Amino acid sequence: MSGFTKSVTKAVIPAAGLGTRFLPATKATPKEMLPVVDKPAIQYVVEEAVASGLDDILLVTGRNKSSLENHFDRAWELEAALEQKGDDQRLERVRKSQILGDIHYVRQGDPRGLGHAVLCGALHVGNEPFAVMLGDDMIDPRDALLSRMLEVQQQYGGSVVALIEVDPEHVNLYGCAAVHALEGEDVVEVTDLVEKPDPHDAPSNLAIIGRYVLHPAVFGVLRQTSPGRGGEIQLTDALKTLAGMPAESGGGVRAVVFRGRRYDTGDRLDYLRTTVRLASERKDLGPDFRAWLREFVAELPPEEG
């Protein structure tokens, strides 16, 4: 155990991707700003960080991402118009995005992979453990995954990733982990990692999802990590190195095996599922939306073949 027990207060959220799967919608609008019901996807992630006690947040952005900064800034004209109308409910919702936490920004520049995006946060993070949260991975607020990961990092030191069980045929879409059990049902030790392996080469069906709590030693490793799959600097490769390093050097990787509710807003079909699911559960929208949805589904023609 490394003894590195300083509390985590900072979160790095990479948000520099081009969002090509959502073109043409993302030609001029960042994918992180696409609405999930009536909030942009990125706000759900920031709210999750703040709810877990991480109120110092760094967004790693790129070109054409100024709307991200605008969203978390004051909108004086809009607020004044809502105040004049006496629309207190919408005014409160507009103001919430600008008081969530202490939000900072850095440009990634060249899109050289997730590992490079994390490395862009080195100056802001310093010599502290920190969280990395991918903007297109949403975790249901009723399932406190990040809080559990922070507990595990405090207990063991080193770094912590989140894993889910996936269909073995789909492991090529993820970074995959070889593990052995520790105490409890949800915590394992990671012994090896493979980025997007062929199904027959995968060490398990446990896949990494977009939540990490990292020891600052990851920055030194990333600086020495050569481009991997896709010609990009892969965070998975750096984590594999950390897993083999001694604890006193910041090594060791544990994982929380997550069995809760996760929404992938980076995939078009899952984005639609997420919007329907969250809208159905809303107190203000749910009853009418569910009633319409039942009628709509009942009137659908049967599938051919």
Automatic annotation (TrEMBL):
Q: What class of enzyme is it?
A: transferase
Pfam families the record matches: NTP_transferase
Q: Which InterPro entries match?
A: GalU_uridylyltTrfase_bac/arc, NTP_transferase_dom, Nucleotide-diphossugar_trans
Which residues belong to any copy of the Nucleotidyl transferase domain? 10-274
Keywords (alphabetical) are:
Nucleotidyltransferase, Transferase
Q: Which GO terms describe its biological process?
A: UDP-alpha-D-glucose metabolic process
Q: What GO molecular functions are on record for this protein?
A: UTP:glucose-1-phosphate uridylyltransferase activity
Q: Which family does it belong to?
A: Belongs to the UDPGP type 2 family.
What's the protein called, per UniProt?
A: UTP--glucose-1-phosphate uridylyltransferase
